[in-house]
Amino acid sequence: MPPVVTVGVDAPPPLARKAAWVLTTLLAACGARAEVLYDCGPDDARAASCALAYAARPLPGVPTLPLSPEAHELIAARLPLPGGSFAAIDVGAVSLAGAFPVTPDGGDPAAPSFAVPFDLVASAFVLLAAWDELTSPARDAHGRFPFAASTFATEPLLAIGRPPVDQYVGVVRGLVDARLAALGRPPLKPPQWGADERFALALTHDVDDLRRWILRGLLATGNDLAAAARGGRLPRGHVVRSDLARLGVAGDGPYGQDPYRTVLTLLEREGRLGASSTFFVLAGHSHPNDGLQPEVYQRRVPALLRLLATHEREIGLHGNHRDAHDPAALQADHASLAERARATVAGVRYHYLKCLYHDTLPMLDDAGFAYDTSLAFAEHEGWRCGFSHPFHPYDVARERQLDIVELPLALMDSTLQDVKYRGLALPQAREAALAVAQRLRETGGGSAVLWHHNRFHPQAGHGYGDVYWDLLDWARGNGGALLPAGELVRRWKTLAGETGW
Asked: In the chain, fewer beta carbons within 10 Å around the N or the C end?
């Protein structure tokens, strides 16, 4: 079990619950469990046992994170964060981006000083709780909150590839360690994902389609070829033409001349590396965006599930269009997939990442899922909530921490490849993928990566399958654990002192 760290919170009730959630989340990333003492102010005798505090006035002898009245008012009124809220703030030798600045002594020169000159808790809250989505009506054609409207796109000092909440974790760890030393206790030990593994990658694959060479797929390929020619992307057009030529002579063999029959090749190579992964499978089709081949998909799913079971892969639900807003349909699809897979389906990822923090996650929590790994921007790799560790999201409507765990999705192949997103050439895609892994190595976090199985086709994958294997090789050589999503979440819950799903 991780060590228990006592934290004092002196704040109005709604804000106090939010602050307790933030501090519990940050301390879990430090390898500790938080014991929160509410209404613990400067004159409270209980403060003597605290290793950290959050209050409007500093607690003597206790490193105190300041409560900003401006932050309290903004959060209580559910107002959008004003532009330019995050500024460069020096905390010791570290410069980081923080919001809601305060004077070090709380306005009383005779009082003890605050530990940092900004409201670190509120700064973390607006990121971890996706405040931008809650307070903005912006949605894209798929109903998603767009990157362009996000705090990361509108705040110049924030970068989605450099998770700021992880920086706050470093500040909290330093403050707590110093206080623990004064209390005669040992410092916190960073979480370990395994015997020699300091960070973790969840390897995941979404099964969107199971056959491309049907009439609709051929028409889509023709459109792709025409668009390539119009845009001057002839090398990619050449790949498409060669695939069409091979279709006429090679057939649809077990290793997949069809670009969507690549699962066996993927499973075998992961197996040779000693790695495992999670496959997210559609339980049904309810909308054209769910896929253009519902009959073919459902006909081939039983064989796919048998193959995945043989290779001992975890199965997750790939939530369809209807599952994103219909609780009854979600529960029916959840049960249907579990019955067909003859396995527990603990996790979910939505097709098209069609997941809203404040609408979808509470519904998933009510449906009993153990974890979700949908929260990401398709437009850019990085960390949607500014945090590279799994965490329990916060339900603002009901003022509570959700039971479901959010496993951050840090990287998706489509983000790197698709011209409507980043559209990176292979060398730049490889560089972007390895940058995600390098950042995880620095933070000690655990996050998911998503590679669709068709990327592993020798022609239709356009080389992006090789980026995946390079990523795995780098992670394994640099202390990374390569895990299925559910196993990563289980290990995180153990590190956080939680049990069971």
From this structure: N
What is the block-wise mean pLDDT of the chain (501 residues), using blocks of 10 residues? 96 97 98 98 96 97 98 98 96 94 73 92 98 98 97 98 98 98 96 93 96 57 58 43 38 49 92 97 94 90 96 98 97 98 98 98 98 98 98 98 98 96 97 98 98 90 95 97 98 91 68
CB within 8 Å of 204: residues ≥ 6 apart: 277, 278, 279, 280, 316, 349, 373, 409, 448, 449, 450, 451, 484, 485
Q: Identify the architecture of domain 199-213+252-495 in CATH.
A: Alpha-Beta Barrel (3.20)
Distance between CA atoms of residues 366 and 331, nearest Å = 10
Which pair of tokens denotes residue 471? 């990523």
In contact, 343 and 353? CB cutoff 8 Å: no
- Give the pLDDT score at 223: 61
- The type of residue at 338 is A
* CB-neighbour burial class of residue 393 (10 A; exposed 0-12, middle 13-18, buried 19+): buried
Three-state secondary structure call for residue 315: strand
The DSSP element (H or E) to which 401 belongs, if any, is strand 400-401
Q: How many CB atoms lie within 10 A of CB 143?
A: 15
pLDDT at 112: 77
CA–CA separation, 177 vs 78, rounded Å? 34
Confirm if 205 and 453 have CB atoms less than 8 A apart.
yes
Here the tokens at position 87 are 């500024």
Cα–Cα distance between 416 and 403 in angstroms, integer?
32
Domain ranges of the chain: 4-182, 199-213+252-495
Q: What was the pLDDT predicted at 235?
A: 40
